[in-house]
Amino acid sequence: MERFAHGGQIYDAQGLAGDWLDFSANINPLGLSEKIFLALTENLRGVVNYPDPQAAELKRAIFNRYGADEKNLVVLNGAAEFFYLYLNATRPKRVVIPAPSFSEYERAARAAGCNVKFFFTSADENFFIDVDKLDVTEKDCVILGRPNNPTGNFIAAEKILRLAEVANVLVDESFIDFLDAESVRNFVSKKISVVQSLTKIFAIPGLRLGFAVVEENLARRINFSKDVWNVNFLAQKAGVAALTDENFLRRTRAWLEVEKKFFVERLKNFPGMKIFPPSANFVLFRHEQAEKILRSLRREKILLRSCANFVGLDEKFLRSAIRSREENLRLFNVLEKIF
Questions:
Q1: Which residue, of 215, 242, 269, is where some domain finishes?
Q2: What are phi and psi of 306, to 5 degrees?
Q3: Which end of the chain is more exposed for a tag (fewer CB within 10 A), N or C?
Q4: Paired strand residues for 293
Q5: pLDDT digit string (tens) for 242-285?
Q6: pLDDT higher than 80, residue 186
Q7: Residues 178 and 108 occupy one common structural domain
Q8: Domain count for the chain
Q9: How many C-beta atoms lie closer than 10 Å to residue 2's C-beta?
Q10: Domain residues for 268?
Q11: Are 88 and 232 found together in one domain?
């Protein structure tokens, strides 16, 4: 398996999308909201113009939704872009990463020429991240997912603040909107930066959209160094529409509260499953026959995420998105045939 491969691999060798039921990418199954759909269709002809390089309308929408001041904002072509921008701008001596976690942390660190140190968490402890035991210095940058992908762990804000007393911390809150939880955006400082994806919660990964909240001087440096048109015209319009749709966010959280419990309870029925408690819209689990499960599901045109290429995991670990009830039932029906 390719070292930095991701989920959502629905394309064939010719680049054509297959007819897959995709549980390998953690995208909101409610799909495009009506507001986003209308924004895209109504603004389609606007692609003949360059996008606003300042993304002023989008930044106002981010401020109105999250309270992040424009002077602290970096708008992004997806959250992953920020790892590269941040590390190229700050060039920490060492990047410290929990294992397992999102592979783009490591990839961006190596691209910036940083040394990489993993601190390994234990499956026996549900991959608990004990930030108080990290051996770090003020020259280090620690990257933490909150919640962490693929384990689902959620680190308390006070632990982030304690860690920031001894190191720089980049917090990835790409799944925070799926939860009714406090962000650490309000604690941004010279030591704490926060990045958030909008593609997963609003089901627009094909458009790519995100933002970061950072200390003012760093925001100025990164904004000067990035591509001036990194967020395209339609992505800006979709973002503005999405961020005014509070009802969509309420529906998403209500769906997840119910469906997460259903998904885990059904998964427990299969013998040999070790399930790690989820916090967001995905579940990590382990099974001795994981590779057989993957192959059998693929024959039924269903994709799960193999975790064989995550540092700290192996081919016995799988990650599944939580999707709609109908789609989840289809997955479980096939799993029952396999078992």
A1: 242
A2: -70, 135
A3: N
A4: none
A5: 999 999 999 999 999 999 999 999 999 999 999 999 999 999 99
A6: yes
A7: yes
A8: 2
A9: 7
A10: 21-31+246-338
A11: yes
